[in-house]
């Protein structure tokens, strides 16, 4: 479990400079900071390094010379730094997006909490974090259109499209490969490695089917069951999936306190007293959590004749990897237009076949 998060910068006059840290009481010496700086300087590249300094186990992410920020995650001795690499890459991007007026300083506590649970995230949460990241989303959206793109072209395209700052393309691609969404491979005759989309992400709101089957059995007074079904039906009559809506719901999935509440609401229709029990699981501000769920039209509140309130899901969310079958039509169209070399398209068919077989095997293993 991490014990602290530090944001550091190198200053030519004063050396290493701590810009923000959480918790405030953590202590890290200038000598240790210099060792972190020197280790990054030795590699000369952006990205993560890990090192042991005395009793400190440190995972440190360097944003590269253009911005020059170092994000240090202080770990316990038995923690595996590599398990936090993807989380640190995401945290560094959020920090760089909030440099104006030092806006990132206020985000450090929430980033620390997010990083703390990163290795234990389930598949749903990992996919949500992946898709929330703007750079990863840009790459996925482009590959949905083309299927395959050369790495060198992707670098140039991202620099042109993403003007907000630093992009660690290698770190981004590693995370997408780990999630089995892309594959990077060399093709004979091609001057640059190729990036292939191997799995896509399906996201949409879905009705809480298990709750709707028998609301009374899940905790809702029987006289309110009809109202509950009516409200849910009304929501889905007007619902249209969109990327904007998906991103609003994803914020729920990646917020530990809100997600813990959602997990309970997926299994039962509950009262405020039931929700208060979630404080034992780290949900400190129930009212704020309920506000977030209400604003995103995830929950509805029902009241019985004694003014007791019941909190129920009116829409749940589904996010999962799917095989991108539609890309076979993309490959066919590119072959007919001769927009990509034959050897690239042949390699892509092989890559897709392997991805399909792997996905099928994974589903069988779960069954």
Overall description:
This protein is of the alpha+beta class and 367 residues long. It is built from 15 helices and 12 strands. It folds into 3 domains: 4-117, Longin domain (Beta-Lactamase); 125-199 and 324-366, Arc Repressor Mutant, subunit A (Orthogonal Bundle), CATH 1.10.10; 202-319, Orthogonal Bundle (Arc Repressor Mutant, subunit A), CATH 1.10.10. Strand 7 (182-185) and strand 8 (194-197) form a beta hairpin. It is flat and about 70 Å long.
SSE string, helices as H and strands as E:
EEHEEEHHHHEHHEEEHHHHHHEEEHH
Percentage beta strand: 15-25%
Find the structural class using helix and strand composition: alpha+beta
The largest β sheet comes out as: 5 strands, antiparallel
What Rg, in angstroms, do the CA atoms define?
Answer: 24 Å
CATH topology-level name of the largest domain: Arc Repressor Mutant, subunit A
Task: Identify low-pLDDT runs.
Answer: none
Please tally the helical runs, counting DSSP H or I stretches of 4 or more residues. Answer: 15
Level-2 CATH architecture of the largest domain: Orthogonal Bundle
The count of domains is: 3
Q: How far apart lie the N and C ends?
A: 32 Å
Summarize this entry quickly.
The protein has 367 residues and is an alpha+beta fold.
